[in-house]
């Protein structure tokens, strides 16, 4: 599926939504308000307010030739699940290719699984990509899908503004990145927005856990009323209640974080639960986000598309 096809799908959904509303209005002319009219109106409104599907996951492909076990190398299964969802866009949340993110490893492992979705993929650079100097393998493989080093950029999808960040502050100038982020958010206010980075501000994962270094990024996002934060790094699935940058649950103002690191490489055990954690699973799988112009819904899915956690919220 190409990016052009993705854009075409969204336009067609809008067209079909408008037709659905028109049909409902015409069918209701001269009739009474039957018991199903309210439900029909709600369905028509949903059709008129089309959604876009974003699949997000990180920590994906084993090195070329590595054998699949019960707890490792499930990238083919998660890629198959992602393709079955027919997403409009894919966001891979860093550490796409183990162990060192070399170009050869990308073309001989990642390309055989998640690479089938390359034309609609927005990549995030992880720490393992920098095990190859300058993350050269990552930037070369994703050359047509991101602007190159230093690795931060912005996308738009169905009324949402999506900020893709580089959280490897030992490799890039994060002060300059934060200045760019703040300036862009000032210049482009958006009703609905998200930030995506490899390192999570909050995580109950036993391998890495929360990253205080991400708090300044979160503060900028919080000040601009960003709705969602996406991250990987810990190889699990975790959802947080809306949080402040300092770690306080704020249901009406906070940023809702999803850690989606079950892309296939391996699994990590749970550590000490972090305050605000609402769901945790040490398992392979995907995060599916359904984005509408004023709201969103989420589902954490297994590789067989079983629903593990789901819900919805309005943009703030």
Question: What are its keywords?
Answer:
six-stranded mixed sheet, globular, alpha/beta, seven-stranded mixed sheet, disordered N terminus, 316 residues
Brief characterization of the structure:
With 316 residues, the protein is of the alpha/beta class. It contains 7 helices and 13 strands.
Describe the structure.
With 316 residues, the chain is an alpha/beta fold. It is 26% helix and 22% strand. The protein contains seven helices and 13 strands. It has helices at 3-28, 37-48, 75-84, 103-108, 136-141, 174-187, 215-223, and strands at 52-57, 89-93, 121-124, 153-157, 160-164, 192-196, 228-231, 237-240, 256-260, 277-281, 286-292, 295-301, 307-314. The strands form two sheets. It has a seven-stranded mixed β-sheet with strand order 4-5-6-7-9-8-10, with no helix packed on it. Helix 1 (3-28) runs antiparallel to helix 2 and helix 6 runs parallel beside helix 7 (215-223). 44% of the residues are buried. Mean pLDDT is 90; it is low at 1-8 and 14-33.
Topology overview:
Elements: H1 3-28, H2 37-48, E1 52-57, H3 75-84, E2 89-93, H4 103-108, E3 121-124, H5 136-141, E4 153-157, E5 160-164, H6 174-187, E6 192-196, H7 215-223, E7 228-231, E8 237-240, E9 256-260, E10 277-281, E11 286-292, E12 295-301, E13 307-314
Parallel strand pairs: 1-2, 2-3, 5-6, 6-7, 7-9
Antiparallel strand pairs: 1-11, 4-5, 8-9, 8-10, 11-12, 12-13
Helix pairs in contact: 1-2, 6-7
List low-confidence stretches. Answer: 1-8, 14-33
CA-atom Rg in angstroms: 20 Å
Average pLDDT taken over every residue: 90
How far the N terminus sits from the C terminus, by CA atoms, comes to 32 Å
Order of strands, widest sheet: 4-5-6-7-9-8-10
Shape: globular
Count every helix, treating DSSP H or I runs of 4 or more residues as helices: 7
Report helical residue fraction.
25-40%
Tally of DSSP β-strands? 13
Secondary structural class: alpha/beta
The H/E string reads HHEHEHEHEEHEHEEEEEEE
């Amino acid at each position: 599926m190409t990016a052009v096809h993705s854009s075409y799908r969204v336009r067609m959904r809008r067209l079909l939504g408008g037709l659905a509303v028109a049909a409902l209005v015409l069918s209701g002319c001269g009739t009474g308000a039957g018991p199903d009219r309210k439900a029909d109106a709600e369905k028509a409104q949903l059709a008129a307010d089309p959604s876009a599907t974003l699949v997000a996951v990180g920590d994906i492909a084993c090195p070329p030739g590595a054998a699949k076990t019960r707890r490792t190398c499930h990238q083919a299964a998660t890629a198959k699940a992602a393709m079955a969802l027919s997403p409009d866009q894919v966001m891979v949340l860093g550490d796409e290719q183990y162990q060192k993110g070399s170009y050869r490893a990308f073309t001989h492992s990642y390309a055989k699984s998640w690479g089938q979705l390359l034309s609609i993929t927005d990549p995030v650079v992880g720490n393992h990509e920098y095990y190859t100097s300058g993350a050269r393998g990552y930037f070369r493989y994703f050359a047509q899908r991101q602007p190159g080093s230093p690795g931060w950029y912005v996308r738009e999808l169905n009324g949402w503004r999506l900020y893709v960040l580089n959280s490897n502050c030992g490799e890039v100038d994060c002060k300059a990145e934060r200045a760019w982020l703040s300036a862009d958010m000032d210049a482009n206010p958006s009703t609905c927005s998200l930030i995506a980075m490899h390192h999570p501000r909050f995580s109950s994962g036993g391998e890495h856990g929360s990253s205080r270094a991400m708090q300044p990024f979160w503060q900028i996002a919080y000040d601009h009323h960003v709705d969602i934060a996406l991250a990987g790094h810990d190889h699990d699935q975790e959802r947080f209640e809306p949080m402040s940058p300092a770690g306080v649950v704020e249901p009406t103002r906070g940023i809702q974080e999803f850690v989606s690191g079950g892309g296939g490489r391996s699994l990590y055990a749970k550590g000490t639960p972090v305050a605000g954690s609402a769901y945790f699973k040490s398992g392979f799988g995907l995060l599916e986000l359904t984005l509408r112009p004023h709201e969103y819904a989420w589902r954490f899915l297994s590789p067989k598309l079983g629903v593990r956690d789901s819900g919805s919220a309005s943009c703030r």
